[in-house]
Amino acid sequence: MNTDKVDFRAVPDSGVTWTLLGTLYLRAWESRLPHPILGDHYAAEAVDRIDYDFDKLKRRVRPESNQFLVALRARQLDDWARDFLARHPDAAVLQLGCGLDSRMLRLDPEGTVPWFDVDVPEVIDLRRRIYPERDRYRMIGASVTEDGWLEEIPAGRPVLIVAEGLLMYLTAEEVARLLRRLTDHFASGELLFDGLAHWTVRMVKLLKWSPRDGRDVERMNPRLTCADQVPITAHRDRIPIRRYRAIYQLMHAVPALRASSVDYRFTF
Ligand SMILES: C[S@@+](CC[C@H](N)C(=O)[O-])C[C@H]1O[C@@H](n2cnc3c(N)ncnc32)[C@H](O)[C@@H]1O
């Protein structure tokens, strides 16, 4: 990681780009627990490098309670990703809407695995100042809804596609088109992403799409088969603080709340 301070004060505190600071901050916060679920110390190092009004962000994202949401979600996706990479040492990884996530460093795959992180150009410009490119690691500044960027990625390997905290910001038409382009470009692989409950999408203006369940996505793209769909509350036992474990236990018992954050794994 680079070491000089990076000025994020110009990032507007509305709009989708801002959200990457929220998830980064929550992961950094969680990494400081005595027994973290994810323990993303790279996030903590990145936060230390960023010049931003984190007190204001803290009031907005309420890390004491929300840290578990991002940690449980990311941990499940990391576990699936590790499992895929263990089964496919000849794989390539494509992460969409990467923000300032450190998954590439957390998983640290074999030197032979090429890894591509994609986000909009203004985010990739900031990201490059925190995480340097290295052998077999490339960042691509493009909107996933645009044409062109996917053709830069070689198609000959089994691919692991991770889209965490991204698809809910796209319309259903944009998601369908993106998934079609991905399954047309790559012959085989797995797609990991998280979905929110339908009611959250109706309530929050920035959010646009959420699958009702894995079948919804299979109907959207018949090349995809849902292999797993896991509400993050399923892993509530990993929460190291009893009070929050109890809250997640309650959430798990209520279907509408259990659906509020679900991790999906698809094969194709
Ligand atoms: C909630 S953040 C998640 C970031 C990261 N995956 C994480 O978990 O910390 C959403 C990310 O999606 C990116 N994003 C939103 N729309 C995008 C698009 N059309 N193309 C590429 N990236 C997009 C944003 O710039 C932002 O980095």
Keywords:
268 residues, alpha/beta, Rossmann fold, 17% strand, globular
The biggest beta sheet, please? 7 strands, mixed
- Tell me the Rg in angstroms: 18 Å
- Small molecules (ligands, ions, cofactors) in the structure: S-adenosylmethionine
CATH superfamily: Vaccinia Virus protein VP39
Note the overall shape.
globular
Instruction: Give the beta-strand count.
Output: 9
CATH architecture: 3-Layer(aba) Sandwich
Percent range of helical residues: 40-55%
Report strand order across the widest sheet: 5-4-3-6-7-9-8
Number of helices: 11
- Measured between the Cα atoms of the first and last residue, the distance is 34 Å
Keywords: Methyltransferase, Transferase
Protein name: O-methyltransferase-like protein
Pfam families: LCM
